[in-house]
From TrEMBL:
One Gene Ontology MF term: ribonuclease M5 activity
SMART domains tied to this protein: TOPRIM
EC number(s) recorded for this UniProt protein: 3.1.26.8
Family: Belongs to the ribonuclease M5 family.
Reaction(s) this enzyme catalyzes, per UniProt: Endonucleolytic cleavage of RNA, removing 21 and 42 nucleotides, respectively, from the 5'- and 3'-termini of a 5S-rRNA precursor
Name of this protein: Ribonuclease M5
InterPro entries, per the entry: RNase_M5, RNase_M5_C, TOPRIM_dom, TOPRIM_RNase_M5-like
Pfam hit, one: Toprim
Metal-binding in keyword set: yes
Domain (Toprim): residue spans on this chain: 8-91
Organism: Enterococcus larvae
Function (record text): Required for correct processing of both the 5' and 3' ends of 5S rRNA precursor. Cleaves both sides of a double-stranded region yielding mature 5S rRNA in one step.
Length: 190
């Protein structure tokens, strides 16, 4: 690959391995959170980066990565988000944890091409009723976790637990129609 995709925004990752891996695939600058040890100095750096060039949060699809994403969103609510599915972030060696550093070139490029930005204007957005999520088996039931994981991949909103799912659907203004379309694909894949 001769010409790497150039990313204008600064990409926020968890550590050195993520930065190393991203730079093999794209031309970008990164800020490392040093895992979940993210501190006030790093948050200030991310806030400044957002003001200057914008940031893309690209953390691992695990509990720690979601915790970091949530912490950053409190300081920079309008940051963009890139998501990898848990499947695409699986390590080649057993015993290693999920991570951006394990993703293929194609998976990284796809995640960065499909960056999503939260929307905060409440104009005409209608929240999806909780009952609809229950009816789709996303909140409770035998395969709810698996359904949420596949839905998160389909909608590019990342893996969520039940409570986070409701927040992410609101944050990214996913409509009931978009949910229905995505769930049709999820059902086909089950």
């Amino acid at each position: 690959m001769t010409d790497k995709m150039k990313i204008e925004e600064i990409i926020v990752v968890e550590g050195k391995d993520d930065t190393r891996r991203l730079l093999e695939v794209v031309d970008a600058d990164t800020i490392e959170t040093i895992g979940s040890a993210i501190n006030e100095d790093i948050l200030a750096q991310i806030e400044h980066a957002q003001e200057m060039r914008g940031v893309i949060i690209f953390t691992d699809p695990d509990y720690s990565g979601e915790k970091i994403r949530k912490t950053i969103m409190e300081v920079v609510p309008d940051a963009k988000h890139a998501f990898l599915s848990r499947r695409l972030a699986e390590p080649k060696r057993r015993g290693s944890s999920l991570g951006v550093e394990h993703a293929s070139d194609e998976a990284i490029l796809e995640a960065l091409r499909k960056v999503v930005t939260p929307v905060f204007e409440v104009d005409d957005y209608t929240e999806i009723p909780r009952q609809v999520l229950l009816d789709y088996g996303l909140i409770a039931g035998a395969h709810a976790k698996e359904r949420r994981e596949k839905l998160g991949d389909e909608l590019r909103i990342g893996y969520t637990n039940s409570k986070q799912l409701i927040k992410r659907l609101q944050m990214f203004r996913i409509t009931e129609e978009e949910l229905k379309e995505a769930m049709t694909k999820v059902e086909e894949s089950l």
